[in-house]
């Protein structure tokens, strides 16, 4: 999972959470920004080795 998070650019954010990768986020990730949600979704796709990933314009911003 860590490698997928690094590829998605969300690893540093995750390791700075109170419990790191074990941190429980609120229902629907209400306390996460839109960008953080997108990067987590991308990390999940990398982790699952999804053969096809469809990206929307929200992924055009760093």
UniProtKB/TrEMBL annotation:
Which Gene3D superfamilies would you find in this protein's record? P-loop containing nucleotide triphosphate hydrolases
This protein is called what? ABC transporter domain-containing protein
Q: Where is the ABC transporter domain?
A: 11-59
Q: Which GO terms describe its molecular function?
A: ATP binding; ATP hydrolysis activity; ATPase-coupled transmembrane transporter activity
User: Where do the TM regions start and end?
Assistant: none
GO CC entries: membrane
Q: Which InterPro entries match?
A: ABC_transporter-like_ATP-bd, P-loop_NTPase, Type_1_exporter
Q: Which domain of life is it from?
A: Bacteria
């Amino acid at each position: 999972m860590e490698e997928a998070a690094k590829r998605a650019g969300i690893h540093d954010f995750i390791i700075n959470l109170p419990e790191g990768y074990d941190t429980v986020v609120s229902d629907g990730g209400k306390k996460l920004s839109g960008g953080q949600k997108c990067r987590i979704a991308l990390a999940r796709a990398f982790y699952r080795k999804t053969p096809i990933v469809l990206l929307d314009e929200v992924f055009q911003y760093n």
